[in-house]
Model the fold of this input.
Amino acid sequence: MTTAGIRYSFTVQPWKYEGQAGWYFVSLPKDLANEIRENLKKFEEGWGRLKVTAKIGNTEWKTSIWFDTKMGTYLLPLKAEVRKKEFIQLGISIEVVIWI
Done:
């Protein structure tokens, strides 16, 4: 997959939403989220959504990040397919790369 745009990389621990759906996410570091929001907010679509290409390990996919006003950062959802391919587990830090 060809990636273009601004590249950001960070290391974070995934977490699970406690609601019924049980989605898994990573929260972008707040300093990084602030930089993205300051420079790219004009490209956000509904609900603070920015289209991105994400990569964890050898798995790269097209997705979006959403700005969560309560947490003050962007959230990147982790699909089950990605979690399985990359053996992602709660409590273990992972390296994430996104291109916006």
